[in-house]
Amino acid sequence: MAPHRVVVLALTGLLPFELGIPHRIFGRAKDPAGAPLYEILTCALVPGPVRTDADFAVHVEHGPELLATADTVVVPASYELGPVYEEGRLTDELAAALAHVRPGTRLVSICTGGYVLAAAGFLDGRPATTHWAHAEHFQRLFPAVRVDAGVLYTDDGDVLTSAGVAAGIDLCLHIVRRDHGAAVANDVARRTVVPPHRDGGQAQFIDRPVPQPQLASTAAARAWVLDRLHEPVRLVDLARQEAMSVRTFTRRFREESGVSPGEWIVGQRVERARWLLERTDLPMEQVARETGFGTAQSLRKHVQAALGVSPTAYRRTFRATGGRGSLPSPDGPSVDAGSVH
């Protein structure tokens, strides 16, 4: 099969870092034989040099006609969106370019690239996000969009949006994970030297008073629990790792991760379950025990809630892309939420 084609739309005033994210993440995704899973191409409204927000331009060979060949279109951020940002409407040139996009094409935006999708009407009635600093303006300009300023990205099936800058990495890794499973996405993350999954949302990055450095970290507790995901974990035991009261630990944990300790542990357990479902033939009861969910019924409930499919369906979809191996060092979320008191 031909690789999935990703076409990146480079607009005047683009941010070079964000332009490179799709090329870096999708370009590193390989099948077990080492063949690329995606083909990544770039187009502009007019072929030739495209001005960036830096002291250089990028030369783009393809024009907007390339959008008609895309399986996925990515719109990175630009600081020169003009009427798109100011009035919520497309320019004639941009509207003509987007008219090339075929129905059913997956649409993705990074940061303020979401303004382009919203102005085109693609986000009406859908959940979406953008950089937290623009979220209020975005919602005022596009009242039909269900803006969530607290998340790193949104996934509404064929339309996905991300918050600012590095959240584009999170979203692209999520897409790889959705398309080809956790094993492929984790390999891309390792090669890119980024976490396969970041916890919490944008709230942790909004400017606010910073905790005292000597009291801020809950990293030791997180490291401690990752070795014990298969065991019941009490909140008091986590707090004891940092010599904090339960109340102080819970507050600082949420400040640092953006989620509660229970939510974080459940997420870690789901990630461990994904690894086992992809790479082993362990029966569901044993997967449940290894991940701390206890029973196959609890495993099914949490995997279904997190991934939208049952463990059996997930294994059927992604088993062929993984490979057998020893138990992983987990890099995702989870203890049963009810196990943390």
Derived from helix and strand composition plus strand pairing, the structural class reads: alpha/beta
Beta-strand residue percentage: 5-15%
What does the average pLDDT come to? 87
- Oligomeric composition of the shown chains: single chain
Shape: globular
Q: Uncertain regions: pLDDT < 50 for 5+ in a row?
A: 207-216, 321-341
Q: What is the N-to-C order of secondary-structure elements (H for helix, E for strand)?
A: EHEEEEHHEHEHEEEHHHHHHHHHH
The rounded distance between the terminal residues' Cα atoms is: 50 Å
Binned, the helix content reads 40-55%
Q: Would you count the extended β strands for me?
A: 10
For the largest sheet, list the strands in their spatial order.
Answer: 2-1-5-6-10-9
Q: Cα-atom Rg, whole angstroms?
A: 21 Å
Major β-sheet annotation: 6 strands, mixed
Give me the number of helical elements. 15
Attribute tags:
341 residues; two-stranded antiparallel sheet; 15 helices; globular; disordered C terminus
Q: Could you characterize what this model shows?
A:
The longest helix has 19 residues, at 261-279. This protein has helices at 16-27, 83-86, 92-98, 113-119, 135-141, 167-180, 182-192, 213-216, 219-226, 235-241, 246-257, 261-279, 284-291, 296-307, 311-318, and strands at residues 4-10, 38-44, 48-51, 57-60, 72-75, 106-110, 127-128, 146-147, 153-155, 159-162. The relative contact order is 0.10. Helix 6 (167-180) runs antiparallel to helix 7 (182-192), helix 9 crosses helix 10 and helix 13 (284-291) packs across helix 14. Mean pLDDT is 87; it is low at 207-216 and 321-341. It is built from 15 helices and ten strands. It has 341 residues and is α/β, with parallel strands linked by helices. Helix 5 (135-141) links the parallel strand 7 (127-128) and strand 8 (146-147). The strands form three sheets. The protein has a six-stranded mixed β-sheet with strand order 2-1-5-6-10-9, sandwiched between helices. Strands 3-4 form a two-stranded antiparallel sheet.
